[in-house]
From TrEMBL:
Keywords: ATP-binding, Cytochrome c-type biogenesis, Membrane, Nucleotide-binding, Translocase, Transport. It holds the Pfam family ABC_tran. Transmembrane segments: none annotated. The keyword S-adenosyl-L-methionine does not apply. Residues 34-226 form the ABC transporter domain. It comes from the Bacteria. One of its GO terms (molecular function) is transmembrane transporter activity. This is Heme ABC exporter ATP-binding protein CcmA. The keyword Membrane applies. GO terms for biological process: cytochrome complex assembly.
Length: 227
């Protein structure tokens, strides 16, 4: 079902214009902005939200907050190119972000509720698709899992699985990190290490959009509330 944008009530979301891109590397180039204009989405037959508008600039972060069922995960899926946009537009650097889904997929890392750890592979083997051994070691050190590198994935605790998922996300450069309750199950030290990865990503001009009910180590993030 198509939903005419002009009938959708705008959401009082705030735009964000964060730092400019500091490093033009294999991640993000300067001035990139993620912009949503009057987005609407259904889940099943139900309109979950409509009229969502916001923007996040390179180096910026936005926290999606709101009660259970308000559509935070739905919005993240939509930003990842995984959901259907019923109305409105998602722009990347001024262009339709979803016109070329493979290109969009290449700029996105999505950390959802599932950690996608393969139980029969070791911790290190779980990352081997994503980089060379040195990069794997670095990524495991960043989440303090290096000493468990040879342990089968099935033997990890919930928090350790989440740390492995974070390591996988951080291994390959991508401009846009989409995080759904990323710190669920993490201990205090792991949240601190995750904060360092987030800061490094943002200092390279990366963008973070995160849905959460918990405090996140994202200084200066703008809140975007879903009703
Ligand atoms: N697979 C699905 N099929 C149909 N409806 C769904 C599906 N997944 C979620 N929904 C509905 O979409 C709405 C938004 O759900 P969503 O998961 O986006 O909310 P949320 O804000 O992330 O919630 P929470 O804070 O509990 O994680 C809810 O009403 C939910 O019942």
């Amino acid at each position: 079902m198509l939903f005419p944008a002009r009938r959708l009530k705008p959401h009082p979301g705030r735009g964000v214009h964060g730092q400019t891109c500091q490093i033009v590397a294999s991640t993000v180039c300067g001035g990139v902005v993620l912009q949503a204009e009057n987005l609407a989405a259904f889940r099943g037959e139900r309109l979950v939200f409509a009229g969502l508008s916001f923007s996040v600039a390179a180096g910026g972060a936005m926290l999606l907050v709101g009660p259970n069922g308000s559509g935070k995960s739905t919005l993240l899926r939509l930003l990842a190119g995984l959901g259907r946009v019923e109305a409105g537009r998602l722009l990347w650097d001024g262009q339709d972000a979803l016109a070329d889904l493979p290109t969009h997929a290449g700029r996105v890392r999505y950390l959802g509720h599932q950690d996608a750890v393969k139980p029969g592979l070791t911790v290190a083997e779980n990352l081997r698709f994503w980089g060379a051994p040195t990069a794997i070691t670095r990524a495991l050190e960043a989440v303090d899992l290096a000493r468990l590198a040879d342990l089968p994935g099935r033997m990890l605790s919930a928090g350790q699985k989440r740390r492995l998922a974070i390591a996988r996300m951080a291994m390959t450069p991508a401009a846009l990190w989409l995080l759904d309750e990323p710190t669920l199950g993490l201990d205090v030290a792991s949240v601190g290490r995750f904060g360092e990865l987030l800061a490094a990503h943002r200092s390279r001009g990366g963008i973070v959009v995160a849905a959460t009910h918990l405090p996140l180590p994202l200084p200066d993030a703008t809140e975007f509330r879903l009703a």
